Amino acid sequence: EFGNEKGRQEVTLKITANDVASWCAQPASEVQKIINQFKKANKLEIFADRIVIKNIVDMQRLVAQKRRS
Description:
The chain is α+β, with helices and mostly antiparallel strands. It has a single domain (2-68), classed as Arc Repressor Mutant, subunit A, CATH 1.10.10.10. Helices cover 48% and strands 23% of the residues. It has helices at residues 17-23, 28-40, 56-68; strands at residues 2-5, 8-13, 44-46, 51-53. It has a 4-stranded antiparallel β-sheet. Helix 1 (17-23) crosses helix 2. The protein is globular, with a radius of gyration of 12 Å. It starts with a strand and ends with a helix. The mean pLDDT is 90.
């Protein structure tokens, strides 16, 4: 689900942290730690049944930056 609030590209993913952990073959506790870091930085909202990325363009930039380093 995509939305545009104040020029931001918000994306809602109907997944859980456990789903992400399973897909990337990482321990759920490690994935939860990373997700919580993004939540504290106000990049994500976490719900029981979904994860909302507040600005997908910014998230793509962060991922690309991490891959380079």
